[in-house]
Write a structure and sequence with these properties.
The complex is a heterotrimer.
Chain A: H1 3-31, H2 38-55, H3 60-83, H4 91-113, E1 118-119, E2 130-131, E3 134-135, H5 138-160, H6 162-172, H7 174-179, H8 184-210, E4 212-213, H9 217-232, H10 237-256, H11 263-277
Antiparallel strand pairs in A: 1-4, 2-3
Helix pairs in contact in A: 1-5, 1-8, 1-9, 1-10, 2-3, 2-4, 2-8, 2-9, 3-8, 5-6, 5-8, 6-8, 9-10, 9-11, 10-11
Chain B: E1 29-38, E2 41-51, E3 56-60, H1 67-74, E4 82-87, E5 90-91, H2 97-103, E6 105-107, H3 120-128, H4 136-140, H5 144-162, H6 179-191, E7 197-201, H7 209-226, E8 229-233, H8 237-243, E9 246-251, E10 254-259, H9 261-265, H10 268-275
Parallel strand pairs in B: 3-8, 3-9, 6-7, 7-8
Antiparallel strand pairs in B: 1-2, 1-4, 4-5, 9-10
Helix pairs in contact in B: 3-5, 3-6
Chain C: H1 2-5, H2 16-21, H3 30-53, H4 59-84, H5 92-113, H6 118-123, H7 126-154, H8 159-184, H9 204-222, H10 225-235, H11 237-242, H12 247-273, H13 283-296, H14 301-317, H15 322-339, H16 352-360, H17 367-379
Classes of the chains: A mainly alpha, B alpha/beta, C mainly alpha.
Amino acid sequence: MTFLTQVLNGLQLGSIYALVALGYTMVYGIILLLNFAHGDIIMVGAYISWIVMAQLGMSPVLAIILSVVGCTVLGVLIDKVAYAPLRNAPRLSVLITAIGVSYFLENGAQLVFGADAKVVPTYFNLPNPQVGGATFNGVAILTVVVTAVSTIILTLLVQKTKFGKAMRAVSEDMGAARLMGINVNNTISFTFAVGSALAGIGAVLYSMAYTQATPTMGIMLGTKAFVAAVLGGIGSIPGAVIGGLLVGFAEVFVSAMGFSVWRDAVVFLLLIIVLIVKPTGILGRTMNEKV
Amino acid sequence: MPNNRHGVVVQMESPNLIPERDLGTIPVLQAEHLGIDFGGLTAVDDFNIAMGRSEISGIIGPNGAGKTTIFNLLTNVYKPTRGTILLDGIDTAGKSMVQVNKMGIARTFQNIRLFSQMTVEQNVLVGLGNSMSTRLVDDIFRTPKHWKQEREFHDQAMELLSFFGMERFANTKAGNLPYGEQRRLEILRALGTHPKVLLLDEPAAGMNPNETEDLMENILRIRDEFHLAVLLIEHDMKLVMGVCEVVAVLDYGKIIAKGTPEEIQNDPRVIEAYLGKQEVK
Amino acid sequence: MDQELNGGQERPYVTAKASKHGGGRKTLSTKKRYIINALLFVAMLAIGQGLIDGDFISRYQTTVIEQIGIYIIMAVSLNVATGYLGQLPLGHAGFMSVGGYSCAIFIIRMMPVFDLNMRSFVTGEPMAVVLFVVGVLFGGLMAGLSGLIIGIPALRLKGDYLAIITLGFAEIIRVVMLNIDGVVGFELTGGAKGLTGIPSYTNFLNTFIVVGIVLFLIHTMMKSRHGRAILAIRDNEIAAEATGVNTTYYKTLAFVVSAFFAGVGGALYAGCIGVMAPAKFGFMKSIEILVMVVLGGMGSMLGSVLSATVLTILPEALRAFADYRMVVYAVVLILVMIFRPQGLLGTYDFSMGDFLEKLINGELFRGKSKQKSEEVEANA
């Protein structure tokens, strides 16, 4: 494996983390909730692909569409059912609810699909282009491109559209936004929808790369993406991308050096070091409590 | 009553408004050229104060003038961008909130900050805790030292509560107290730390005229019985004019006037800050 | 009628001394309260041991009861950091595993030194008992030490960040336990296949003696100036600092105490289960313990004890429905948070002494109305 292939691997893994991290960051930015269930939404997305292609024998395009739509709907539903009733509750209660939802999805999937891994069929046979002597994985290139495009669209959405403006207003001050006539509930739902759609895209890209769906796949993926979001500075879109890539590269290079068993420990250590040096993450804003 | 052990007269550049009885001692609280910027915004600038040991002073000013910020600077919640704070002649720069409290400043908060899930007595005991000395082993193994201390401080807490006649609430959750009592409890908790200076942030906010009347009396009682200086922020002019010996008026982070209540009431700059510029006839 | 009887409300606070002279309400001295509690505790141990010796409780049931004790320790210790300090550490299982591995490895390595075998712990040889005590303390100390190492950086952060950093540390601990053998060059933890050959040094009696000690120590800590400082931080950190509470010290203290007792719980767990494997101490285990604390009511020791008991028995009792068990868990957790965010018992705590006092004064069924009249008065 050449260095360039490793870089591409790092980019690929980092891109998936970044997509998932964007979901964490957006939800945190708007309702200050670490949505523990976000990783599990990806798991559901992977299972949807598996059902559509392996069980129903339908087309991969439909699988992709249904995965993304399914994740989006699920994300909004989770917010409406579990988080919305707790809008004014202590943050700790909402966080624990999020853990409960995560727990529910994992165990629900285990109940329905069983604990063993399901093989997600290949979506498309992508060519693996050769540049010079090195072969580059087509899926990896697709992953990086899709992530880059998604991030650009998301940035435009947040910066340029009316919905984006509403999102930023609600995240600044929910009460004031409501007084200004912004429909806060719709804005929050929209945020969940966008974040979960990104998770759906992440689910498809992840299944393309690792071709497996298990009930617990969301835990580590989610936790690491979450680490990426915190690392980059939660609430920041570029921060999530930087964090995701950092985590991806750290993992790939630690493995390449032959320490793959320490991979997870290195990622968490990286997080701890960053948080000690800069408690709000790389691009995070400092928020002081008003005295 | 005033502590004369220092016996030095300090020269101050601001007009000396320290009450006669405190002359000849070093000011208990002195701030010079105090200022803080948030980002590019100057919240407080060139704030000077010198307080005698038994002085009651007030800071008034429109909302957003930087009054609470001054309290936050004096208690080291914020680090000043400029200037120094001397507490009993000792510079408090670089000290933590806890250390500053131990050096002798205690405060209340504009939006009441009680330990709301704890009982009234426990709230006071946290304040008194500064003077407790049991080690963790004494407490967890319930040594005689623990019991002795708990008894002593229970009595102290009750005595402190009796200052405002609040003994009957001893076992009530602080969060369940009526509003006025919550404000009082906050003052008692602060007094429990044995401060030399007590900072009261809008103590009369939300009180009716009768309660404010009581509060005025109580502020004087606190000064006399606890032998300390009181600096307060207040919007209620009756209270400020009734108890304060010196009043400083703050606008846009700067002192625009300083003097006795009478001087302040007639100062055109103050009237302007509160009511806007009057047209010249 | 109630109004009349509660006329006493008008009186200022009745101190213990005053109530002895007048007032008419009988009180129990602290000493008597302690003696009553100790006697009840010993009686409970004796009954339990009697039932086991008399074969009324099977070997399997005994193991479940031991696990109840262990999870009581885990929940009550997590409650120190969650309910009392108001933080949300998500790595309690990490401390549990440090305690478990430390104690188990210590005992396994010390057995040949003191010429003990697996049976020595079952028959209760004096040296085995000493080794048990030292081993459990060692497990607690190692966990406490890791709590200190984790706490110092973690406690600089707030809320969610603290949650995620403790989660990260627990994962690091798990990875270390999994791979440490390769680093040290000899078999220490047994890696993924686990640590075996742990003598069953845990039994009903020593588990519940430890439970009793842990409950006592946490209770006494919380009912002292140290405990009040911790609660003050939970209720309002800025006010606590302004009142002279050294928040850094007390946060670290609560965190280390929480980790220490988690280590003690882990030490007992190793002896109870007999095999230690890193996979048992993942994120999910931390969550399981958290659920116990949250369901019981954050800040309520009785709540932690009860929910640890129920949530340990339930899965065993529902073995037939093992598949649904976790889903139900999750749903219950969400429902409790939505409808009763403060947990089933809130911060209510039971005091045997107060209970008996009410009993001898015939007030047992007037508790509610009394409280109400107090509130009315407070709102007046």
